[in-house]
Structure formats: C-alpha cells, structure tokens
Amino acid sequence: MSVGSNSVRMARPAPPKELQAYLDDRTAAINHALDHFLPPARTKPATIHQAMRYSLFAGGKRIRPALCLAAAEACGGSQDTAMPLACAIECIHTYSLIHDDLPAMDDDDYRRGKLTNHKVFGEGIAILAGDALLTEAFDIAAQSQGSPGYSQQTMLRELTKAAGSSQLIAGQVADLEGEGKSVSARQLKYIHERKTSALLCCAVRLGGMSADCTAGQLAALTSFGYNVGLAFQVIDDILDLTQTSARLGKTAGKDRAAKKATYPAIVGLDHSRRIARRLTNRAYEALVGFKGKAAALEALARYLLERDR
Ligand code: GRG
C-alpha cells in the first residue's frame, strides 16, 4: 500500500492529553531550533540544503530529542541548555534513516509518510544529505556549553561513540550481515543494542550531562535509556508486522520479506510484547530515585511501549 500523499491516514489512539500537549510543545521547540541551526534551504548549493531539510522536517516523531530534553528536566536543567544536543541527536538519527533507506541498504520508497530522500533527490544527493546532516550534527553539538561536571569535549565524545563504528554503525553492519541467515536471540540483542538503543541512551545521557547530573543520576539515565532503547526496537519489529504502511509512514512487512531477524520472528508476537513490557518496566525502575521529577521520561517510555506507529 502506498503511504504517499494520496493515501488515507487511519485514526490512531492518541497519547493521553497531557503527554500529547507536552510532545506538541517540545516538538515545536525542537523544530524551531533545528530550523535555526540548519543552513537555510536557499543557501548554495541549494539542492543539498533542500535535501537535508526535506528529511529533517518530514514529520518524524522527535522521540530522541524529546527524551534528551526530558532527561535534562529530570536533573533540574533547562531546555535551552540541552537543545543543541537534542538537535544534534535528531540530525544523526535522520542521517541514519536516509542512508538506511538507500537501495544499497534497505531500499525503501517511503519514510515518515513521504517519498524517501533518494526517490526525490537521487541516490548521490541522498548520500550527501546524510553525510551533511551527520557533519552538521557535530557543529550543532559544539554550540552546547558543557556543564561544570561534563566538558563540551566529554559530550562530543559521547556523541561520536554512539554514532560510530562500535555502536550505531556496528549495529547496521551486523543487521546487514545477518540478512537471510539464522540469527540467535543473543545476536539480535547485540544488533538492537547498537542500531537503536545506543542513540536513545546517548540522548538521555546528554540531557542529564547538560544539566550537570550526579554520577548516580547518570547511571540511572543510562539504565533507563538502554532499556527504553531495546524496548523501542522490539516494538518497531512488532509494528512492522502488525501495522499498515499508511499508519507507519513507511513500507510495512519489510522485515519478513527480507527474512530479517526480529524478535517476533524468533520468539513470536506475544512473547515479543512481554519482552517489550519487561524492558519498559526496567526503565521505570531506573527512574525511582528522581522522585517524580522524571514524570515526563516515564510518560514517554509508556507512550513508546503503547505506540502504534
Ligand atoms: C553509514 C551507510 C551508513 C549507514 C548508516 C546506522 C544506519 C545507517 C542505520 C541505522 C538506522 C536504523 C534504521 C535504526 C533503527 C532505529 C529505528 C527503529 C528508527 C526509527 O525511529 P523512529 O520510529 O523514526 O523514531 P521517526 O521517523 O519517527 O524519527
């Protein structure tokens, strides 16, 4: 089914009103900041800046930057201080999606409910748009201030580690190499930890660091981010199997068609749902010490577990 502009979007259960208002508010602030940080679309060469902005403003859920801001809030920090780091994470995430959709990778025609970058701008420009977003991410992160306990250098290294060849890229390599092969649950966890959890975890850690969090808070945020990140990918695999392309804004059912290793393929749908719930419960447990200041993080974790796109 097409997910293009002619497709009909189905109604979906909305997050609770308060969380929806919170997400709308944060999304507006994140979009405003991204618009400020990115070169204007008319900046020469205009094609590349249009291509970068096309995917960045295509309607992503903004989960990672929202988590970064919520983590800063949980540690008593400000949205403004965390914002460059939140935006840098979203640029890295968007680059990874553009490249993931390329014919040499997952070969997808739709993303975020729109044609993929290479379908609109061609493969060469899509590769460059991903490269440029990755590079821009570090320029944006370098505009963060650092906090008394965490230097700007420490935070930049946090970002490079999460996006680099032992985390995000390592996950993608293992994913590519596992296609069509029998992959164990242990190997699958290795892929999920790197391909998905590393960047989500980095988002909450950077939010905490921007707020000069204590060592105990950083450990709690790490456990929260790690578990939410794993749960996120299990849910993503379930949605690929159970939702329509129109609902997801990308082609559904691709994992099965590509014989990709997923939790539903290895342990079944029901068990996968139980695993996602268990991981989310572990994420909640990590927040106990924040004594209510992490209400937004907790609500986001619940939303991610219950989401349908
Ligand atoms: C270096 C050539 C090269 C490629 C890098 C690292 C990489 C490619 C791809 C990994 C990207 C990937 C698909 C990770 C899985 C994480 C995931 C489920 C992403 C979808 O996240 P959502 O649902 O997306 O938050 P939106 O569109 O809402 O932001």
Question: What report would you give on this structure?
Answer:
- Residues 1-13 have low confidence and may be disordered.
- A hairpin with a 2-residue loop joins strand 1 and strand 2.
- The longest helix is centred in the C-terminal third of the chain and has 28 residues, at 215-242.
- This protein has a single domain, classed as Farnesyl Diphosphate Synthase, CATH 1.10.600.
- The protein is an all-alpha fold and 309 residues long.
- The protein has helices spanning 17-37, 46-56, 63-74, 79-100, 117-121, 123-141, 152-163, 168-178, 185-210, 215-242, 245-248, 254-257, 263-267, 269-286, 295-306; strands spanning 110-111, 114-115.
- The chain has a two-stranded antiparallel sheet with strand order 1-2.
- Helix 3 (63-74) packs antiparallel against helix 4 (79-100) and helix 3 packs antiparallel against helix 15.
- The protein has 15 helices and two strands.
- The radius of gyration is 18 Å and the shape is globular.
- Bound molecules: geranylgeranyl diphosphate.
| Major β-sheet annotation | 2 strands, antiparallel
Indicate the CATH class: Mainly Alpha
What number of structural domains do the residues give? 1
Q: Tell how many strands the DSSP assignment holds.
A: 2
End-to-end Cα distance, whole Å, is 15 Å
CATH topology: Farnesyl Diphosphate Synthase
Q: Quickly give the structural class.
A: mainly alpha
Number of helices: 15
Spatial strand order of the main sheet: 1-2
Model regions low in confidence, pLDDT < 50 over at least 5 residues? 1-13
Order of helices and strands: HHHHEEHHHHHHHHHHH
What small molecules are bound in this structure? geranylgeranyl diphosphate
